[in-house]
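User: Hey, my collaborator sent me this sequence without any context and asked if I could get a structure. I don't really work with proteins. Can you help?
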Amino acid sequence: MRALHEQTEKEAKDLKEEVVGFSERNQSLVVDLSQSIGHDDELKRLNQDFQLKIDDAMSHRASAVKEVEGVSRQYHSLKSQYTEKISQLEIACSSKDVSIKLSEKELATAKLLMLEKDAPIATLNDSQLVIEQKAATCQEEVDQKAEEL
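Assistant: No problem. I've predicted the 3D structure and written it out in structure-token form, which is a compact way to encode the shape of the chain:
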């Protein structure tokens, strides 16, 4: 009977240790699950931030494209006007026997005005490149954060 009692106590002790082990494992799993949920929430937040940045960049890009198109139309209109004016000046010089120096000065002035109109288009093209680079940088940051998590 004593042997049976000792065996029962040993089995009870083993079961108690096993229950403690299961309890510790359960707590560890709960902690892991909580961390995983936290990472999921962080990824969702990063994804939302990234989507907002993409939307903002796309909006800026669309605005810049519209602005470039408007300036481009204006540029081509002015270029056509200046080309016509230069043609008129060349005709006037040949038909009215105007001095060559005067016509060269007017021609140079007209060409200079055309070159000045090219500057805003180059600036807008540079702005569009900057916006595209920012979008790529945002994507890299999100990818890096996702890898870290």
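In plain terms: Residues 2-148 form a domain with the Helix Hairpins fold (CATH 1.10.287). You can pass these tokens on to your collaborator as they are.
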